[in-house]
Amino acid sequence: MEDEILNIIKERGSVFQNELWKTLGIDCRKCSRIVARLLRKGMIERELVKTNGTRTYLIKMADNKKNVEVMRDFDYSVLLSDNNLAPCAGCNEECEPEFCNSLTEWIHELLR
Amino acid sequence: MVNDGFEWVVEQVLLRLLGKDGYEVVKGIREGEFTDEQIAEMTHTDLNIVRRTLFILYENKLAVYRREKDEESGWLTYYWRLSFENFPRYLERERRKLLRKLERRLEYEREKVFYVCGECGIRIPFEEAMDINFLCPNCGDMMVHWDNQQIIEVIEKRISELRKGFS
């Protein structure tokens, strides 16, 4: 159903949420749940609008460019030593932090 | 400067997560939705590397796909898109991970007494040093007591900084 919703938005450019569930033949609660899931995944975005006197959401595909600005505000300094990124960030190895050499080196960098 | 710094962090994390090949794929993807084959062509990369990269990104919620079904053949086509708007959330998870690792390390540093070899810098806990008569396992030099108080303090400081941002 997620795919169907995305395909409809992609095809039309934008869609009102109160039309979406009718088009799909599902009830509005189910539609809201799927829309919420897609919002969480960052695949779509929506704004509150009024159409024919009814309040609903206008849903569009997410605009990546806009979101990139938001991510610049993230405070990443706690992941850094003087110059190096903590070895745990992006690391998928199963490790024992007690004995990880990369972590030891990084901790020593914190002392400088 | 802050923006440059952030981009550097993103680059370093991606290199670690995806490797150099995978990072090159990400750099070469244009904005929009593409199939894995289109991405392979666009980035001049082997299709298997592209698929592996997309899979890792998807697992970490840094890429999303939309499927389209061909009504005649029933085949599904996957259209991929990078979702780097989730990057702060990803870094947030990495921050929590670093916190967990440092907490474990701190516990270890607090409960152990260490001995170090002045010659080659090898550090081992007291129990192990005692088993080998305080002689360095590498060069045989005498090992001496090593005060790790500074290490404990610097880990404590970073842990408290890492905890600050959490609600």
Number of strands of chain A: 3
Could you describe the largest sheet of chain A, including whether it forms a barrel? Answer: 3 strands, antiparallel
Query: In which range does the helix fraction of chain A lie?
Result: 40-55%
SSE pattern of chain B: HHHEEHEEHEH
User: What's the CATH topology label of the largest domain in chain B?
Assistant: Arc Repressor Mutant, subunit A
Oligomer: heterodimer
> What would you say the CATH architecture of the largest domain in chain B is?
Orthogonal Bundle
User: Number of DSSP strands of chain B?
Assistant: 5
Judged by helices, strands and strand pairing, the structural class of chain A is: alpha+beta
- Name the chain pair whose interface involves the most residues: A-B, 38 and 48 residues
* Largest sheet features of chain B: 3 strands, antiparallel
Q: Report how far apart the termini of chain A are.
A: 54 Å
What features would you highlight for this structure?
heterodimer; A: 112 residues; alpha+beta; 3-stranded antiparallel beta sheet; 5 helices; 46% helix; 17% strand; elongated; B: 167 residues; Arc Repressor Mutant, subunit A; 2 domains; two-stranded antiparallel ribbon; 6 helices
